[in-house]
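Let us work through a complete example step by step.
Step 1: write down the sequence.
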Amino acid sequence: MLKGNLIKIAIIDDDEDDYFIISNYINDIQGANLRLEWISDYQTAIDKIRAEACNIYFIDYRLGNETGLNLLKEAMSIGCEEPIVILTGKGNREIDILAMQNGATDYLVKSELNTEKLERCIRYSLDRAASVKKLKERENKYRNLFEGSKDVVFIADKELNLAEVNDAASLLFGPSKDDLVSRNLYDFIKSKEQQKWIKASLEAQNNITDMEIEIETGDKEIKSCLLSVSFQKSTDNQWLVHGIIHDITSIKRTEEINLQSQKLAANERLMRILAHEIRNPLNNIGLSIEHFELPFEDTEKQRNLVNIIQRNCIRINQIITELLNLTKPGELVFERHSLQEILNESISSAADRMSLQKISIKKSYPDLPLEIEADKPKLKIAFTNILLNAVEAMESDKGELAVSMSIDPDAYTVSIRDNGVGIPHEYLSKLFEPFFTLKKNGMGLGLAASHSIFQSHRAQMQVESKVNEGTNFIISFRKLNGEINKSI
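Step 2: predict the structure and record it as tokens.
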């Protein structure tokens, strides 16, 4: 370690004679490339340490009105990484302990110095400093990975009591990092079955890799995540759990949207085939009815039956037209419109039903008009379907409907929230499928049509619902070019 590169050594001592004695010992070290520098006062020593001028510092315990311990403490406070050795005129165990506690690499008694002892001290101190520096670099690297990770990284005991978390944990769970340290991870895992499985795995000391779990945040929002944990023994021989939680909520939503799109496309193809196959014989029936001539003595009953056939032929034809229109969401005319205006007109379309059901409505809009490119008539149909769906889900005279808008960094978001019966979790994924309905007399086309229209507007739609608490439809529209920064 002492051969090769130049090693700069500072001897900080206010006694010049002591400096010459120590320097003679050091200069007798064979095969070393050493350069000595004498520093006789406290402030110059601090300036040298701050400038990282030397590779190792020997500091006398007595420095005029100051002490070597004071200099050591100040050197540590300014981030000195070079080794510091405390020198004293006589051995003192108390000073020895204080020096080591405050960051000294070694402690030497002047009267016991010789060339061999100083060579060994320099070699040991430089080796130790190099090792400590590598450890700090490694620690900083992993600390940066820990703190900078967008995934939640945590350290806990076997019961999952959190001991340390990174910043991403606060973003996912809600509470601050300090508050999370006193919490248990099970507090945030929604499913009791998932909790039991995790506990069993930890008790058996089995690592967990990418287990899908549901996290309930402090705001009662449900997040889909992947949990991975591994075990490691601490310095006091206790088992610690190291874990990572990866939020896949947006990925899951994207998968659901893609799956819904595929289902909708398949249903659209089926509807076009059915419409074509049904309409051909229906047209034949309709034409036959038009040319049908009742005998002169026809009865009123027979005429009524013919009228029923005609009306139902017309009704079936209308249903087929509705189905075909549902499969043509691309035939839209986009113009710039205010979201507030579209929503207000949609609310007006549903006003009669709200009035009959005695539903109260509360609106919360930004003062600034939120403009989007939209086919206004189609978008009114989509919003009206959702509003009517909400009205039908609420109890008469007790229903409360909240319609609000918010401005996000790159989108405008509309929320339509009711306090109705809610939708069971297992049905949420089927909600926008054509012909799926929870209503006794429903056809299951309203929400499917709304979903198709929103998709054609490149809007993202999600539903949050709890049984007996209500449902919230959330629709996000992209901002127009140039509107993103203006409205933030």
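Step 3: interpret the result. Residues 253-326 form one domain.
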